[in-house]
Design a protein that fits this description.
Length: about 300
């Protein structure tokens, strides 16, 4: 199970390969087939050594090599052309190397042409995480949970990140319905991608997930006390009411975080709202940074 930002990002694409085709089309205007499947990332050499790419996705007509690059690595300037040449020799298909990076400086470095052979040059296709769509719509998050989680990894430190974080949390819960461990890991990564203030605003929601255990030391250190309190309170609540109560805590935390004030009257207003209405209210407060007039 992936545990770092690098491995978790790759896991998103391995689980849903069509996500890479979607991003290449929507961000870079590059058309590739969507029916991609993971294949071996290892490329054999003439000598008894081998090079291993981060990820390789293959379709009927395309082979896409995916590299998640968190920093500059001069060795990659020699290995990337090898990946492309080896994959093309093995499949005979159009072969692309895509570098996904979360840092604009690394993106500029990776975008430079690489001198190769016969006076040729090779230029990787660079996908900046800053251009990954900001997913805030909850229905989109349910339909494309991997995109929602990637959105949080890319935009979790920006203004209005709570809105992105909520959508990503909904995506993580959607994944958890089929794979509980992966869903919990995604939720943990989403919270860790936010600022401490924004993560606290969503903490109560995640704590209501049955049996949730934080994987990262960052989350354990910052939220252990709140987690214990949430679990103690959750024992006396039903599952549905527990989720609603967690969402009400998020509304209150958002109001305090944005200086909107929290009163008994507002608490009474949200007490009778359904989970869906509470989610919509959270999104509106996050986007507008004010208490809605019709709430």
């Amino acid at each position: 199970m992936p545990s770092t930002k690098h491995e978790l990002t790759l896991d998103l694409f391995r689980r849903r390969p069509a996500l890479l085709a979607l991003l290449l089309r929507s961000v870079l205007g590059l058309e590739v087939e969507e029916n991609l499947v993971p294949r071996s990332e290892t490329f054999a050499q003439l000598k008894s050594s081998s090079y291993a790419a981060d990820g390789v996705l293959e379709g009927e007509h395309d082979t896409i090599i995916l590299e998640v690059q968190l920093g500059r690595d001069p060795e990659k300037l020699r290995s990337w052309p090898v990946y492309v040449a080896s994959a093309h020799a093995a499949t005979g298909k159009r072969t692309l190397l895509v570098v996904l990076t979360f840092d604009d400086g690394v993106a500029e470095w990776a975008s430079r042409p690489i001198a190769t052979f016969h006076d040729g040059t090779f230029r990787p296709i660079v996908l900046r995480a800053s251009r990954v769509p900001r997913v805030t719509d909850l229905e989109t998050a349910r339909a494309q949970p991997e995109l929602a989680v990637l959105s949080a990894l890319a935009h979790g430190r920006e203004r209005g990140a709570v809105e992105v974080g909520l959508a990503a949390w909904v995506g993580a819960v959607t994944v958890a319905s089929d794979d509980a461990d992966r869903g919990k890991l995604y939720a943990d990564a989403v919270l860790a991608s936010l600022t401490k203030r924004d993560a606290r605003a969503l903490l109560e929601v995640v704590m209501k997930t049955d049996g949730y255990q934080y994987k990262s030391e960052w989350m354990k250190q910052n939220f252990a006390e709140g987690e214990a309190k949430g679990r103690a309170e959750g024992k006396a609540e039903g599952k549905a009411e527990g989720k609603a109560e967690g969402l009400r805590h998020v509304v209150a935390a958002l109001c305090e975080a944005h200086g909107l004030g929290w009163s008994a009257a507002r608490a009474e207003n949200v007490a009778c709202l359904s989970c869906e209405d509470l989610e919509r209210l959270i999104v509106r407060i996050s986007a507008e940074r004010r208490w809605p007039d019709d709430a």
